[in-house]
Amino acid sequence: LKRSISNSRRHGLRIIHFSFQSNHVHLIVESTSNEILTRGMRSLTNTMAKRIGMGRIQIERYHLHVLRSFREARNAIHYVLFNEQKHDSGTCST
């Protein structure tokens, strides 16, 4: 994960919070443009797939939702950080 985050940061993507479940990942990221978001997410998923050694991760399945208000951001962060209690997995903030 550290290498994936490092590679995506080189493209300008900032991973703010993340949570791993058994079969998916929740991310809250920041970018200054759609191009940076696209390049950063490609880098992140490709590096993760290589490191996990399980083939290609389906980047086309990610769900983009722009957080437009403080309340929406707060709720999203709470969901990501406390989702571990539902799924019993690792959660972290960077």
Number of helices in the DSSP assignment: 4
**Helix vs. strand class:** alpha+beta
Q: Would you tell me the overall average pLDDT?
A: 80
Oligomer description: single chain
Q: Which consecutive residue ranges, at least 5 long each, have pLDDT under 50?
A: none
Report on this model:
The protein has a three-stranded antiparallel beta sheet, with helices on both faces. The protein has helices at 2-10, 34-52, 70-82, 84-87; strands at 14-20, 25-30, 91-93. Helix 1 runs antiparallel to helix 2. A hairpin with a 4-residue loop joins strand 1 and strand 2. It is of the alpha+beta class.
Quick description:
The protein is of the alpha+beta class and 94 residues long. The protein has helices at residues 2-10, 34-52, 70-82, 84-87; strands at 14-20, 25-30, 91-93.
What's the arrangement of secondary structure elements?
Layout: H1 2-10, E1 14-20, E2 25-30, H2 34-52, H3 70-82, H4 84-87, E3 91-93
Antiparallel strand pairs: 1-2, 1-3
